[in-house]
């Protein structure tokens, strides 16, 4: 393609350096171009099947002149909603991956926010026979963050915890105001579940977009395979990072590290 340019470096002088720099830039451009191409291919792949199923159902109804039964309409509607959310997620992800996600950072009381988020998912957890609890070693911690994006991070982690924990399980959200890691001080929040866990060989791919552990296992849960990827990029955009520990059949812990606000 256009970007497959590589000039052989023959001299060690200024020209050699210029050519080396040029080659490095070409490589980086090619990597960006590859990433973009992969994203487009992934998106096309994700959208194609549900869209063609909906198309078939609608065409079939049109050709036979039969009414679409209400439950099929409901399912079609759910699918349209799901695709809409997928497009929204992809938009956030592509902005975040390109480092172009504009954050609206302000001082945020993280413990208050977490309490609210836990409250928001409590009903869904209880409907699934799960207990959910929030623990904090402090009354209030301020981080400099985009409240909407941070909410999305924890909603994604909690939705997963609920999805992948069988009835009778417990989900704990644990906040620690000061944790030292990599020579910096962070506020850290763990989302701990007693669910199905993740095999260790899957962990390195977990934050890749569209990655789902055992596709069959995850399909019926209705996720998109983007939740963790988005969470990872949103936390990174805040100068933090996410760690995961998991034991199959025992449970999973995701820990979000956020830089402490001054
Ligand atoms: P999905 O929309 O499929 O949930 P995510 O990016 O949120 O996509 O998660 C990727 C995969 O990681 C999931 O399909 C699931 O297999 C696995 N996973 C995520 N969170 C958990 C968890 N708390 N327990 C077990 N498996 C999980």
From TrEMBL:
Cellular-component GO terms for this entry: plasma membrane
Which residues are in the HAMP domain? 1-34
Q: Where in the cell is it found?
A: Cell membrane
Say if the entry is tagged with keyword Hydrolase: no
Record EC number = 2.7.13.3
> Which spans of this chain does the record mark as coiled coil?
none
Reactions catalysed: ATP + protein L-histidine = ADP + protein N-phospho-L-histidine
Domain of life, per UniProt, equals Bacteria
One of the record's GO molecular function terms:
phosphorelay sensor kinase activity
Domain Histidine kinase, chain residue ranges per copy: 42-262
List the protein's name: histidine kinase
């Amino acid at each position: 393609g256009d970007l497959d340019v590589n000039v052989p470096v023959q001299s060690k002088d200024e020209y050699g350096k210029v050519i080396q720099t040029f080659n490095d830039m070409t490589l980086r451009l090619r990597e960006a171009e590859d990433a973009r191409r992969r994203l487009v291919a992934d998106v096309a792949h994700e959208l194609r099947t549900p869209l063609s199923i909906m198309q078939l159902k609608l065409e079939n109804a049109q050709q036979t002149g039969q009414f679409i039964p209400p439950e099929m309409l409901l399912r079609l509607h759910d699918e349209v909603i799901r695709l809409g959310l997928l497009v929204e997620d992809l938009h956030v992800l592509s902005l975040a991956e390109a480092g172009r996600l504009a954050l609206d950072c302000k001082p945020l009381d993280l413990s208050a926010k977490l309490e609210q988020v836990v409250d928001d998912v409590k009903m869904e957890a209880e409907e699934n026979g799960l207990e959910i609890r929030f623990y904090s070693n402090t009354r209030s911690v301020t981080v400099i963050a985009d409240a909407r994006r941070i909410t999305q991070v924890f909603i994604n982690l909690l939705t997963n915890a609920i999805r992948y924990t069988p009835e009778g399980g417990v989900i704990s959200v644990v906040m620690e105001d000061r944790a030292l890691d990599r020579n910096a001080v962070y506020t850290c929040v763990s989302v701990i579940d007693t669910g199905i866990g993740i095999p260790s060989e899957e962990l390195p791919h977990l934050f890749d977009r569209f990655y789902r552990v055992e596709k069959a296992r995850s399909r019926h849960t209705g996720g998109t395979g983007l939740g963790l990827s988005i969470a990872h990029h949103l936390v990174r955009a805040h100068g933090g990072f996410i760690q995961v520990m998991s034991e199959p059949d025992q449970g999973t812990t995701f820990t979000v590290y956020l830089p402490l606000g001054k």
